[in-house]
Amino acid sequence: MKSVVTTVIAAADAAGRFPSTSDLESVQGSIQRASARLEAAEKLAANLDNVAKEAYDACIKKYPYLNNAGEANSNDTFKAKCARDVKHYMRLIQYCLVVGGTGPLDEWGIAGGREVYRALNLPTAPYVEALSFARNRGCTPRDMSAQALTEYNALLDYAINSLS
Amino acid sequence: MLDAFSRAVVSADASTSCVSDINALKKFVAEGNRRLDAVNAIASNASCMVSDAVAGMICENQGLIQAGGNCYPNRRMAACLRDAEIVLRYVAYALLAGDASVLDDRCLNGLKETYAALGVPTSSTVRAVQIMKAQAAAHIKDQPSEALAGARLRKMGSIVTEDRCASLVSEAGSYFDRVISALS
User: Fold this and answer.
1) B102/A9 Cβ within 8 A
2) ipTM exceeding 0.90?
C-alpha cells in the first residue's frame, strides 16, 4: 500500500542504504499532517452511515428516473446495493485519510471500476452526484476542523474525478 | 509493503468496516519524533553495530575464522558483514514503518533456506543478531555500555524522555526476535 513511509522505504531499499536524514524528514512531514487526517477519519467513521445515506438520497433526488422500472434503483434489492456502493466509497475515503494517500481508493475503488460499471450497465453520473453532495455537505467547524475538512474534500474530489 | 497506517486499513478492509482504532494511530503520530530518533540512532551507528556484532560472534567461536570456518577467508567474512548490515537495515525500515511486513517480505522470506543451502551456521547468525538487538536497545535508549564500549563509546546526545523510549526499544527488539525465529 503506497504511502509516504512505504515510498521512502522503497527508495532507500532500492539504493541499499539506511534511512537518511532527508528520508526521516519526509516521514516527519507526513506525520505532522497526520493529525488532521486522523481527525477527519475519526469523524467520518463515527458518521459514515448518515453521510452515505444523505449522499445516496441526494443522488436519487437528482436522478429520479433511477426509480423507474428496469433502472438501477427500481426495487429494494437495487436500492440497498446503491446505498452500499456509496457507503463503500465513503469507507475507502476513510481508509485514504488513515493512510495519507490515495492507495486504498486506487487499488480497491478505481481500478477496474469503469469495466464493472459498464458490464453492469450502471450510470456513473449518480455516483458523481452522491460524492459531490458529500463534498459540499461538510462544514467547518460543525463537522471537523478546517484542515481536516480540506483533506477530506481533496479525497472526495479525487474520487469524483476518477468517475467523471 | 505496509506501514502502521496501511496495516490498520488492510485489517479493517478484511471485515469491510471503517478503521475504528484511531487512538492507536494517534499515539503513533504523537510519538513520531521518538520513532525517527530511534531509526536515526540505528542508522547513524550501523557500521559500528555490524562490525561489533560480527566481531563478537567470532570472538565467541574462533573456529569461524580458521581454515574451513564460515568467516574464512576474507571473501566470506565480507559476505558475513554485508549480511549483518542487510538484516540491520531491514530492521531499521520496519522500525520506521512501525510494521514488520517490509522485513518479512524483503529480508526473511526464504532466508533460512538460503543459509541452509549455503551452509551458513544458524547458531552463529542468531548470536550476531542477538548482539545487534542489544546494541539497538542501547542506542535507542542512548545508554551504550561504558564498560563494553571503552574508548569507542558513542552517544547520540539527543534529549531523552523519562522512559527512554521503552516502547520503541521493545518494538525494535521484537523485530530482531522475528529475525531470530525466522532463522531457527
Assistant:
1) yes
2) no
